[in-house]
Amino acid sequence: MVTITYGEKKSIQVPLGTTYREAAQLVQPEFEHDIVLVRTDNKLKELHKQIRGSETVRFITTAERAGMLTYERSALMLLSKALHMVAGPALEMVWVEFSVINGYYVELRGDVEVTKEFLSRVKACMKKMVRQDVPIEKKKVSTDVARLYFKEHGMENREKLFRFRRASSVNVYNLDGYVDYFYGFMVPSAGSIRYFDLKPYEKGLVLLLPTQNEPEKVPKFEPQKKVFEALDAFASWSEAMGIATVGEINEKIARGEALDMILTAEARQEADIARIASRIAEQPDVKCVMVAGPSSSGKTSFSHRLSVQLRGLGLRPHPIEVDNYFVDREKTPRDENGEYDFESIEGVDIEGFNRDMVDLLKGKVVRMPTFNFQTGRREYRGNTLKLEKEDILVIEGIHCLNDRLSAKIPKKNKFRIYISALTNTNIDEHNRIPTSDGRLIRRMVRDARTRGYSAQETIARWDSVRRGEKKNIIPFQESADVVFNSSLVYEFSVIKNYAEQLLFGIPEDAPEYVEANRLLKFLDYFLAIDSTLVPQNSLLREFIGGSVFKV
Fold it and tell me: Residue 485 and residue 17: Cα distance in Å, rounded?
């Protein structure tokens, strides 16, 4: 017998060779949510693995990020298996296009019509495998064998991905004869995937899944039309350009076409900014351009580039940072942990902001504040502003889409922009790159360069940042007049040069090491690109440095 220690000095005795799943089943009644992984020696392990000796473990549930990601991957495999079973030979490929609120948008390639009746059959098939608790078996195979298998089964992007893998072997998963590859850990069997729903949407379907906050509840599907359209447009463009997956991007780099890919991506983004500027210029009543988005979306660089386009159309833009209207430090609200909540709208002097903006619209001279983050006080340093006929304000802040912030500014005078790095590059057909991963890596690199923060510190703060975004930004994104996608298809190949050394600096015994190791494995999929090829006005320069703008 061996001893498994967990929690607050709790322990169980199990025979040598017991699987972590069997141990998890013994302690599951003590946990509110389903156990899907274990953490031992500061490493994550799948539940199918055998226990080799006495050890201390931490059981990971679906209420944690690592656990929910494991659940999501496994649900995607279950869906793919069921789709092939129901559609048969008519289904050529299942393509997981991108993540949407509370799930994934999936398109089917082949002669398959996605109807409610079809999805009802697919869902019934999934539920049957859940009831039967069909095993998800993991097997290590040589990279060459994996390439050959996926090529023969029409998964060419998977074959391209493995072509650039340095590892001699890869892990594949088998669900009742359906073999697939997934980036990350999986649950041991279909019985662990109990909560999901399917909805037809646009040209495909949405797989709805629970969230970390409520792991046993499938939320209602609430289409986010504007964000979806931005993601769909990017997906269509990247597929047409032949750079929709990591394997395709790596092929471009290997052929010496990195610069062409960069210039093409930058040109597309500049064209999007130009179109937004034209829409603004066509509305003479618009005097306040409100720009909002989550952390590390590139809001500052975007605002500069938008201003350049506006000047080209004969307007005179003036930047306004809502952060300069922070209340004095002692008036800043605190979060549930007693820490200052700088992302709360209550931390902004809403009355003062509205008063100044309305006075500017009336043509008055206004003294403009500057917030001193060292003293925690607003200061007036002699900066004044008066709007003339061709002047326009470009206002940047996380609350710019919230009507409370600009309640006294007439609607006709506002144009609202939601910006986010909506990552639409796939690792392959079934493996999505979470949008939040891209922003976390961006922030990590910028924090190290401009604030002296370690990668460990940035990762430690990230959950708190994400909670603030979900509360203060995401609920308002559909109220924007336009959604701008700031992601760049080539950026991971550049930013890995900066991020990897920061991630390797995190000690193996640190709580953030598991997340750092996951990100390192992810970045290893990409061939590197020399950062000197990145234009100086690129949004990416806001993070890696060398921008022509003051960011």
Answer: 50
**Residues 276/281/283/285 CA torsion (nearest 10 deg):** 120
Handedness of CA 264, 266, 267, 269 (dihedral sign): positive
Question: Could you tell me the two tokens for 242?
Answer: 């032949």
pLDDT, position 151: 83
pLDDT, the chain, mean:
94
Instruction: Give residue 198's pLDDT.
Output: 97
Q: At CA 521, angle to CA 143 and CA 441, rounded to 5?
A: 145
Q: What is the DSSP string of 436-448?
A: HHHHHHHHHHHII
Paired sense of beta strands 136-142 and 169-175, if any: antiparallel
- Per DSSP bridges, beta strands 370-372 and 377-379 are antiparallel
Which stretches within 241-328 are classed as H helix? 246-254, 258-281, 299-312
> Cβ(488)–Cβ(265) under 8 Å?
yes
- Return the DSSP state at 528: P
> In a 3-state reduction of DSSP, which class is residue 527?
coil
E strand or H helix at 171:
strand 169-175
Q: pLDDT for 352-390, tens place per residue?
A: 999 999 999 999 999 999 999 889 999 999 999 999 999
Domains of the chain: 2-61 (3.10.20.30), 67-223 (3.30.980.10), 229-299+308-314+391-544 (no CATH)
The Cα 195–Cα 65 span in angstroms is: 16
| Spatial separation of the C-alpha atoms in residues 175 and 167, rounded to whole Å | 24
Through-space distance between the first and last CA atoms of the chain, rounded to whole angstroms = 60
Q: How far is 289 from 318, CA to CA, in rounded Å?
A: 10
CA 420 to each of CA 73, 294, 433, 487: distance values in angstroms, whole numbers, following the listed order: 24, 6, 14, 7
For the chain, list residues with pLDDT below 50: none
Q: pLDDT at position 24, please?
A: 97
Query: Which pLDDT score is estimated for 429?
Result: 83
- Which residues, including other chains, have CB under 8 Å from residue 476's CB and lie 6 or more apart? 292, 401, 402, 418
Q: Using DSSP, state whether 43 is helix, strand or coil.
A: strand
